[in-house]
């Protein structure tokens, strides 16, 4: 018999983290533990207000599983909870429990390649151009920087970052903060400044405007892409999708989404919310072999979990089984 517990945890951030929708100084996550036969499986999620989630709503969703734990597994969970943070934490905890119980790592249980070190993007939050240039200079040794934009001074911010980090590859993330006219006016400058990818330039509810327009820099769907059901509406608008386990509802759907997107000729970024290494470890299995990896959440915390992932610069070592999987 499985015993399920869930609790809220807070991780202070190393610095204020701002995007077009607001700022935060802490990461408020939910940790799930599943106990059975002397083994414990864990998972973590970050409830996201943009998707109508809160700590309270996620805990309530997880609590709703208490009736029916005897039949709970990764398949039945897909039917009992919708895509989102709550299902993610439970799905990942189920995989961790299965690995602990079987003595096999999750990648073997799923028939995936053995994990290898990955290179992650490092995110610069939305700030004034001078502050972003200073942080770009500090992080200029990193091969890939992700820049949060979405305001009136975006061109100045981008130029400042490029000046601070002249050789780094750049991803721009507008977090739905632009309109079509602004995107089209910026696009030629993005090319000149060597931007690899533009993430979610328009609000998800208004991205029909992207149909049929020139995309001189590839576009990546984030807020517009949650699970496989999202894919039908992305064709002709985007070139990549950003897979986040808190959107898909866990590792199970994230892997299925990755495979379906690749069959639809969409490139893959694997991203994260600002959370601890426990949330990153399952995503690393999805990120294996993908074009862009954005799993820098723990680098933005003041302090990670003691058994957290090991980062050497922007390189992430495969997770220890003490952490997950």
Can you offer a commentary on this structure?
It is a single chain. The model has no long low-confidence stretch (mean pLDDT 96). Strand 6, helix 6 and strand 7 form a beta-alpha-beta unit. The protein is built from ten helices and 14 strands. The longest helix is centred in the N-terminal third of the chain and has 18 residues. The chain is globular. The protein is an alpha/beta fold and 325 residues long.
Topology:
Blueprint: E1 3-19, E2 22-36, E3 39-45, H1 55-63, H2 74-80, H3 85-102, H4 106-109, E4 118-119, E5 122-124, H5 129-138, E6 144-148, H6 154-164, E7 169-173, H7 180-192, E8 195-199, E9 219-221, E10 240-243, H8 245-248, H9 251-263, E11 267-270, H10 277-287, E12 292-293, E13 311-312, E14 315-316
Parallel strand pairs: 5-6, 6-7, 7-8, 8-9, 9-10, 10-11, 11-12
Antiparallel strand pairs: 1-2, 2-3, 4-14, 13-14
Helix pairs in contact: 1-3, 5-6, 9-10
* Percent of sequence in beta strands: 15-25%
Query: Helical region count?
Result: 10
Determine the structural class based on helices, strands and strand pairing.
alpha/beta
Helix content class:
25-40%
Radius of gyration: 19 Å
Strand order of the largest sheet: 5-6-7-8-9-10-11-12
* DSSP summary, beta strand count: 14
């Amino acid at each position: 018999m499985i015993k399920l517990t869930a609790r809220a945890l807070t991780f202070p951030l190393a610095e204020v983290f701002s995007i077009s929708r607001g700022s935060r100084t802490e990461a408020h996550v939910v940790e799930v533990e599943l106990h059975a036969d002397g083994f414990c499986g864990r998972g973590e999620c970050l409830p996201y207000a943009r998707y109508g989630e809160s700590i309270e709503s996620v805990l309530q969703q997880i609590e709703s599983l208490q009736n029916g734990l005897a039949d709970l597994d990764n398949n039945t969970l897909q039917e009992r909870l919708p895509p989102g943070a709550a299902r993610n934490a439970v799905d990942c905890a189920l995989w961790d429990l299965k690995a602990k119980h079987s003595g096999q790592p999750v990648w073997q249980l799923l028939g995936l390649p053995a994990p290898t070190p990955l290179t992650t993007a490092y995110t610069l939050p939305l700030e004034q151009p001078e502050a972003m240039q200073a942080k770009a200079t500090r992080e200029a040794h990193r091969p890939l920087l992700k820049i949060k934009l979405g305001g009136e001074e975006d061109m100045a911010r981008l130029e400042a970052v490029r000046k601070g980090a002249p050789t780094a590859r750049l991803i721009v993330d507008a977090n739905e903060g632009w309109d079509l006219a602004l995107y089209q006016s910026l696009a030629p400058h993005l090319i000149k400044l060597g931007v690899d990818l533009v993430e979610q330039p328009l609000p998800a509810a208004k991205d029909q405007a992207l149909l049929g327009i020139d995309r001189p820099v590839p576009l990546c769907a984030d807020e517009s892409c949650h699970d496989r059901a999202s894919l039908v509406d992305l064709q002709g608008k985007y070139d990549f999708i950003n897979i986040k386990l808190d959107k898909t509802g866990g590792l199970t759907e994230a892997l299925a989404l990755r495979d379906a997107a690749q069959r639809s000729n969409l490139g893959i970024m694997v991203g994260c919310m600002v959370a601890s290494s426990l949330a990153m470890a399952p995503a690393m299995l999805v990120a294996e072999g993908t074009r862009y990896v954005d799993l820098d959440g723990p680098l933005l915390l003041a302090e990670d979990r003691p058994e957290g992932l090991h980062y050497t610069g922007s390189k992430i070592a495969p997770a220890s089984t003490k952490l997950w999987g």
